[in-house]
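Lecture 7, part B: from sequences to assemblies.

Below are the input chains for today's worked example.
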Amino acid sequence: MISKEEVKHLASLARIELTNEEAAELQHDLGKILDHFEELKEVNTDTVAPLAGGSLLVNQFRNDEDSTNRIQNDAAVKAFPDAASGFLKVPPVFE
Amino acid sequence: MDLSKLTIAAFQEGLRAKDFSAREVADAYFAAIDAQNGALNAYLSLTKDLARATAAEVDAALAEGKELPPLAGVPLALKDNMLVKGYPATASSKMLEHYTAAYDATVVEKLKFERAVVLGKTNLDEFAMGSSTENSAFGVTKNPHDTARVAGGSSGGSAAAVAAGMALAALGSDTGGSIRQPAALCGVVGMKPTYGTVSRFGLIAMASSLDQIGPFTKTAEDAKLLFRAIRGKDVHDATSIDVVKKPFHYEPKKEDIKKLVIGIPKEYFIEGLHPEVAKGVEEAITRLRKLGFSFKEVSLPHTKYALSTYYIIMPAEVSTNLARLDGIRYARNVRDAKKLQELYVKNKAYGFGKETRRRVLLGTFVLSSGYYDAYYAKAQKVRRLIKEDFDTTFKEVDVILSPVTPTPAFTIGEKTNDPLSMYLSDIFTIPANMAGIPAISIPVKKYTVGSGELPVAFQLMGKHFHEEDILGIGELYEARQ
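Predicted structure of the full complex, as structure tokens:
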């Protein structure tokens, strides 16, 4: 189970704004989904190490060198929604 | 020209025999798209300039008598979560509606190198999250076999485009079944390669430990051609692997394919399996037996837990990956924010659809302090058990055969109000992503369902890096028909 307050708290963590109706609907949906997850308690995992994924479970290393940027800087800047002098432009962080 | 029967193999022959030019075929596909896309909504945008320029290059090279790469001139569709420089990549989200890709995805770079003709970008569930394309911000893709039904998802547009003869082949991405499920529902071949085989660079990330790009084609032979063109190590994707080199290189002989032992996992033949799906899978087994394949019953005891495990791990990765879509770097839809915090909130509220929000919140929940161990850490442990089930089973058999989906294509709207029932349509495809193994959906035939006929398919899952096993069985299966 999950409370409506918890849903709203999660939404604020994720920077998502919810109306009361949306929060109620999500509370219902998430509650049902979390109930379904209860079945995992049946599985004994006391001696099991977590698996994060991947096919080759070895670290991939590369030399710590400066390399030519494949994505040209100006192309990236051009893709910014708002830029000034080659920098990303955003509204003020503080009031 | 009958585009509905054309294969990559036949196209290559025809092009070299000068039966048609690359430009003529590209134009025939654009005409087919014009005629059908209004009804099916498979494409979100077309890349006509790029397609025509590439086709002209191929025709010129051919006129000069130059050798052509295997995919030269092949008209392809790309799921709209892959970047093509200078063209939109929306991921079917309002968030990226006005975004233009600044670079090519590695798969696109490889296709351009082969001079494949990219026709356009296809519809998907928003950020590839869904099983029906009903979560697209730009309308649902309809199933070419029955337009009242879904094409599946999330790569529904790519599947429908190939099934309807609007592309000769296509690329999709598969995180929990997003290539295989729509392939099954639309009656085409769809393969998810081994995790790490195909670079994910330039694929808009959904769940990075599960996402993999793969082909949609009419035949397994074509899937092999396309797969071989896109695989390989990429410096821009640390999880990619050099599969054409030792020790991963694997290319069995045809006579060795016939000796492969196929396992039937009892956990995949559950109550609730649609009778026509059961019939289709039986039919496939019968045909493969006649080809001389031997079968063995096997058990993958943790199958039952794959869905819950997936719906913890995937949203956790989604919530992290999608955090970057905040109206700052890629596209800004809402501009009247006075503070940074307000900019995030307003853009996310505008840009994210219902399912996206649901998964971001679910992911935020399972990763949050106090719940992390009970959900995320637990799911990672069960993920290992699911993978170990496959490791054990692949000591007994070479390949595993199962259904792809519990039912044939469902009706539009049927599952949209019940997320859990929608999630259940991926129960047979999720385990392969959890374990990172390759899996393919191969059509059997159409069966009568309700008042119409719908395709049914079967799935083959192989060992890590053994795509050639499942593709090889697919080729033998097709040759028999």
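Note for the exam: The longest helix of chain A spans residues 20-37. Keep this in mind when comparing with the next example.
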